[in-house]
Amino acid sequence: MPTGAFPVSILQNSVKMTLEPPSGLKQNVLGTYEALDDVAFSGCTKPEPYKMLLWGFCFFHAIVQDRRKFGPIGWNIPYAFTNEDLMVSRRQLKIFIEEYDLVPFKVLNYIGAEINYGGRVTDDKDVRLIKTILQTYMNPDVLTVGHKFSESGLYYSLNPGDKEDYIDYIKTMPLNPKPEAFGLHNNAEITTSQIQT
Question: pTM (2 decimals)?
Fold first, then answer.
C-alpha cells in the first residue's frame, strides 16, 4: 500500500518480483495444501465437515485459476484470482461451520461466488459461470466420501484425514488434467494447445 515513509526513488530503482499461482491443477492444489499450517487445516471444532468443504474450496480455487489457460472458453475475461480470495473463504467457512448446527451451503455459495471471488468478475456470463462452478464443490453431496467432482470420477471428495493424506492423493492426480476436470468438452484442449503454441 502507498505510504509516505517509504521513498519512491527506492521503489523505482528496485527489482520487482511477482508471485504467480502455480501452473496446472495438480500443482495449484498441492501448493495450497502445502502452505496450510496445522491451525488452518485442523483448527475447527467440527473437523470432518470443515476438512471436506475446505477440500471443495481449494479445488474450486484451483479450477477457477486454471480455467484461464482455455482463453475465452474458460472465462470471457481473464481474472486474477488470488490466494487471499481462498484465505478469506477458508476463514468464513470455519466461522459458519462452528456457529451453525447445519452447514449453510446457500450462504457459503453466496459469499464465495458473489463476494470473495465474484467481486472480481465483471462479465454477466462469467458471473453465472462462477456460481455454477462453486455449486459443484459447495453442496451437501460433498460431505459424502467419494462424491465425484468430474464425470470421470478421477477427482472426488476425500475421507477427512490428515493433511498428508490429502497431499498423497494430490500427488496421484494427473499432471495434465483433461478438460472434463474443468467442466469443459474435450475439444477445449485443442484451443488451449493452439494458444500455448
Answer: 0.85
